[in-house]
Amino acid sequence: MMISYKNFVCGYKDKTLFKIQNLDIESNLCILGANGSGKSTFAKATCQLIEYDGDIFHNSKNLKHLKKQALAKLISYIPPKLVSYDEYISVKEFVLLGRFIYKDFFKEYTQKDKNKVNQVLESLQIQHIKDSYLNTLSSGESQLVLFAQSLVQESQMIIFDEPTANLDPRNSKIIATVIKKLQKDFNTLVITHDLALASFLNSPILFIKDSKTNFYKNPKDFFKDSELKRLYEVDFKEMAIVYE
After folding, report:
1. What CATH number does domain 3-232 carry, 3.40.50.300, 1.10.260.40, 3.40.30.10, 2.30.30.60?
2. pTM value?
3. Among candidates 178, 212, 184, which has minimal Cα distance to 28?
């Protein structure tokens, strides 16, 4: 799978957040940058949730021209936090909603849909909370439930928006390990402030700063002390990689 950005410009009102003349994502990507630099905007534009100038292609297909159902089968978006309008919906019911794009109108979810939910819950080792209400879950469990709903959607590309935000070190490690495994079967785009997570995933990196972008095909070039100091204006003398 190839996602390509051509003459891609994004922003709000009169403020341009970033410009990308040409960028190809062949498999996985991490996006880093300061607060307000445009990381989440990049993701929302990719999902066609906001308007932008330029074009985004999946192989040779322009995403602007895809119908919503086709787009959902191509890309799924995982927000930083689980939000539901019904606190008393169970985990398995919430995850099953990820199969909506495959459901026939006015018909119930099929046994195939339900089997897919069970399979994904087992693969994420959260089968034991399938009957729990969303409002009873811990932060780590909530994040895994979001992952589960995305996986049953069976999209080719998964966008993770701050997946380890507000998680303790133990749950951060669990989430990082799950994403690492998913990279083998899916294209992933991870938006994060977590340098340890970015290093652990070892994906190419796009850094956004002051409306400009820096692309590092080899993440080792990004994690040089001199480069980190230049980008973040902080002196990184030692990088504590906690996930290894």
Report:
1. 3.40.50.300
2. 0.89
3. 184
